[in-house]
Amino acid sequence: MSRQWHTSEDRAARYADGSLPEPDAWSLEKHLESCAACASRVSAAVRGTAAGAVLTDVRAAVLASAVREVPVSRFARLLWAAGPAVRGAWSAALLVVAGAALLLGQFRGAPEARTLLLALAPVVPVAGVALSYGPHADPLHELAASTPGGGLRLALTRTAAVLAVSLPVLTLTGLLLPASGAPAAAAWLLPGLALTLATLALAPLTGFRIASALTAGGWLCAVLAPSPGEIGARLARCLDGAPAQSAWAAAVALSALLLAARRTAYDHTN
């Protein structure tokens, strides 16, 4: 929706009294999300209607309640926004990956435990993003996505929750495993962030689940195929050294720019 036009007093009054045609009302409501001047004009028009006094009383009651319950409300909103990202199958998968790597490295003495962990770690947050946003993850997704806090903002909130859980768990697990010539335990962080942001950047075009399948599948094919016996050498080329890490940092920056440039495209992404 273009931000160059502004609503007239007459249009605002017709919206307030319900006489504005429905398509025009939808258009105006979308415009109000990004135009404070028009929002103030419409609010003034609504206050002048019969419903104005009722709405004023409701607003006062809501604000009074919010003042009394600000700490609880903010914490509850945070848990609600991040909830689907840190519960269910993804959390179990994260613990399985970390636990299996520790068991393999500590109890069987397998020298390739860290190598396998580094091969899988970048796709764990990608899977978390895929499972945390959309109708399949949240029964209230359509309602949440239609609010000012929905769309990209909600997706980034849940992505941050996924990263906040997976990054320390997987990196600490890598530090506890024998190096045995594998890249450093934290070498997967930039690739993991790049793949996660790339998933977000692709999501408006394909949906979150397909986007995550493309990014995670591409990484796994590049690292594990065609010969699993060469995983260590391929990981070293992908993760070790300033050139490889600089390339991943550039991928992170590019994906972040795409997210910023196409932020409005996330309003209807599943």
Walk me through the topology:
Blueprint: H1 9-17, H2 22-32, H3 36-47, H4 51-68, H5 70-82, H6 89-106, H7 113-120, H8 123-132, H9 141-145, H10 152-176, H11 189-206, H12 208-224, H13 231-239, H14 241-261
Explain what the structure shows:
- It is a single chain.
- With 270 residues, the chain is mainly alpha-helical.
- It folds into two domains: 9-65, no CATH class; 74-268, no CATH class.
- The protein has 14 helices and no strands.
- The chain has helices at 9-17, 22-32, 36-47, 51-68, 70-82, 89-106, 113-120, 123-132, 141-145, 152-176, 189-206, 208-224, 231-239, 241-261.
- Helix 8 runs antiparallel to helix 10 (152-176).
- The protein is elongated, with a radius of gyration of 24 Å.
- The two termini are 21 Å apart.
- The mean pLDDT is 78.
**How many separate helices?**
14
Strand content: under 5%
Largest sheet: none
Level of helix content?
over 70%
Identify low-pLDDT runs: none
Instruction: Please provide the count of β strands.
Output: 0
The residue-averaged pLDDT reads: 78
* N- and C-termini, Cα separation: 21 Å
Can you tell me the number of structural domains? Answer: 2
Shape: elongated
What's the Cα radius of gyration? 24 Å
Keyphrases for this structure?
membrane; Anti_sigma_zinc_sf; 2 domains; mainly alpha; elongated; 72% helix; 0% strand; Zf-HC2 domain-containing protein; Znf_put; transmembrane; 270 residues
Provide a brief overview of the structure:
This protein folds into two domains: about 55 residues, no CATH class; about 200 residues, no CATH class. About 70% of the residues lie in helices and about 0% in strands.
